[in-house]
Amino acid sequence: MEYKLNNFHYNVPEQDLLDDIKRVAAKLNKMALTSREYDEVGKYNSGTIHRRLGSWNKALEKAGLEAALSLNIPDKDLFENIERVWISLGRQPTHREMKPPLSKFSTYPYGRRFGTFRKGLIAFVEFIKSNDDNNLAMQNVESEKIPSEIIQDNEPVYRHKTKRLPSERLKVQVLMRDGNKCRLCGITVTGENIHFDHIHPWSKGGETVLENIQVLCETHNLAKGNLTYDS
Ligand SMILES: [Zn+2]
Known about the structure:
Elements: H1 14-28, H2 35-41, H3 46-53, H4 56-62, H5 68-71, H6 75-89, H7 108-114, H8 117-130, E1 144-145, E2 158-159, H9 168-178, E3 195-198, E4 213-216, H10 218-228
Antiparallel strand pairs: 1-2, 3-4
Helix pairs in contact: 3-4, 6-9, 7-8
Bound molecules: zinc ion.
Zinc ion is lined by residues 182, 184-185, 187, 216-217, 219-220.
């Protein structure tokens, strides 16, 4: 008896791999195909395809199919992911930085959705600019002093029209305006070291709006906090 090793398909032309993906997709009547679905009826092995084409999604793209991964992510999730990455870095992410753990998604689904990652970023900037700031607690109410009869200890208390903590969207707006540099010393700040400071302190009636929030480094945020009792 002669034992015959399984064929590893090292030398299959790339086009044959792609043609077989198309054949399986047509057979299953699907525009998107998971590697598991392919392995059930495919002539080759999805591991081989992965190795030869770089990734399963790249193989699907080359075969002219939609990547299952990128089909069902809502725009909102794609944008909120950039929002998180932008705040972590303090600035616009590069192509290379869009990978776990920093980013939940690669640039791939952005390319699928918007044409290119850059076009995705352009759409993101529009999203940041156009969406209602969810910091607003109430509409069209000026910050006002609460009537003196309910003020205790002579400490003025303000009714705010915004929430104290800036929303993720507002943070990105501030970073887009200031860059990731402390407004007082110019040092570059990232991650935990980025502080979003109320220029006119919250405790003195300052609102959480773009014009009243600035980027500070930790040192200057602490220094200012000691001065104004506002963090
Ligand atoms: Zn500083």
